[in-house]
Automatic annotation (TrEMBL):
Keywords, alphabetical: Activator, Developmental protein, Differentiation, DNA-binding, Homeobox, Nucleus, Transcription, Transcription regulation
Protein's name according to its UniProt entry: Pre-B-cell leukemia transcription factor 1
Record domain Homeobox: where: 126-189
MF annotations from Gene Ontology: DNA-binding transcription factor activity, RNA polymerase II-specific; sequence-specific DNA binding
Length: 229
DNA sequence: AGGAATGATTGTGC
DNA sequence: GCACAATCATTCCT
C-alpha cells in the first residue's frame, strides 16, 4: 500500500492518459511558475522519471497478461482433469486465488524496484549538494564579520539570521548551515592547534570564550581562514 | 591531478 | 526544533 502511494505521489503510477505524458505535464505544472530555471534544470529529471514510468507500465501490463494466460492455462488443465475426476468449483476458485496471489507478489517486487529507481533518481538530480555554488566573497565577508565579532556567542537569532540572509543574498537556512559548519570547523581548527602545542585542552565544550580566541576581528584565527588574506 | 575548502545533507542527542 | 558531528559532492587552489 505504501509503495502504491509513493508511486502515485511521484506520478509513476498515475492514471494513464494516452502516451503517458500526463505525469510529466503534471510535474512541470507543479514545479513551474515562479522558478523559471527550475523547470529547465528538472527537465532531465522528468525525462528519466517518465522513462521509469513507461518501463513500469509495460512491465505491469506484461505481468497482468502473463497472469491471465497462466490462469486460463490452469483452467484448461483443470477442465481436462475434470473428465477423469470430479473437481469442485471451490477447488478452481482456490487455484485461481493462489495464482493471483503469486502474481501480485511479483508485481509487488516490481513496485519496490521502481520505487528504488525513483529514489536513486531523486537523490541524483534533486540533491542540492550536486549543484553547490560557493557564496560570493562579499557574502562570506559579511558572515565572517558577524561570526568573529560574536565569537563569544556565535549563535545568531532568527532576526539576525534573516538580516544576514538579506545582506548576503542567501536563504535563512543557508545562513544556519553556514554558522553550523563554521562553528564546528572553527572549533576543530582551535582544537588541532592546541594539540599541536601539546596542550590537551578539554574538548567537550565549545571553546569560543577562551582568551586567545577573543582577538576581535580580524583575529589571528580569522587569518587562518586562507580564503581571506 | 590531488588535496583542501566549502555548502548541504543525514543521523543523533537533548 | 535546534545544534553538533560525520559525511557527501562539488569547487577551489597548488
Amino acid at each position: 500500500m505504501r509503495l502504491d502511494n509513493m508511486l502515485l505521489a511521484e506520478g509513476v503510477a498515475g492514471p494513464e492518459k494516452g502516451g503517458g505524458s500526463a505525469a510529466a505535464a503534471a510535474a512541470a505544472a507543479a514545479s513551474g511558475g515562479a522558478g523559471s530555471d527550475n523547470s529547465v534544470e528538472h527537465s532531465d529529471y522528468r525525462a528519466k522519471l517518465s522513462q521509469i514510468r513507461q518501463i513500469y507500465h509495460t512491465e505491469l501490463e506484461k505481468y497482468e497478461q502473463a497472469c491471465n494466460e497462466f490462469t486460463t492455462h490452469v483452467m484448461n488443465l483443470l477442465r481436462e482433469q475434470s473428465r477423469t475426476r470430479p473437481i469442485s468449483p471451490k477447488e478452481i476458485e482456490r487455484m485461481v486465488g493462489i495464482i493471483h496471489r503469486k502474481f501480485s507478489s511479483i508485481q509487488m517486487q516490481l513496485k519496490q524496484s521502481t520505487c528504488e529507481a525513483v529514489m536513486i533518481l531523486r537523490s541524483r538530480f534533486l540533491d542540492a549538494r550536486r549543484k553547490r555554488r560557493n557564496f560570493n566573497k562579499q557574502a562570506t565577508e559579511i558572515l565572517n564579520e558577524y561570526f568573529y565579532s560574536h565569537l563569544s556567542n556565535p549563535y545568531p537569532s532568527e532576526e539576525a539570521k534573516e538580516e544576514l540572509a538579506k545582506k548576503c543574498g542567501i536563504t535563512v537556512s543557508q545562513v544556519s548551515n553556514w554558522f553550523g559548519n563554521k562553528r564546528i570547523r572553527y572549533k576543530k581548527n582551535i582544537g588541532s592547534k592546541q594539540t599541536e602545542r601539546g596542550a590537551m585542552a578539554p574538548q567537550n565544550k565549545m571553546q569560543f570564550l577562551s582568551p586567545q580566541n577573543l582577538g576581535g576581528y580580524p583575529s589571528p584565527c580569522y587569518q587562518s581562514d586562507r580564503r581571506i588574506q
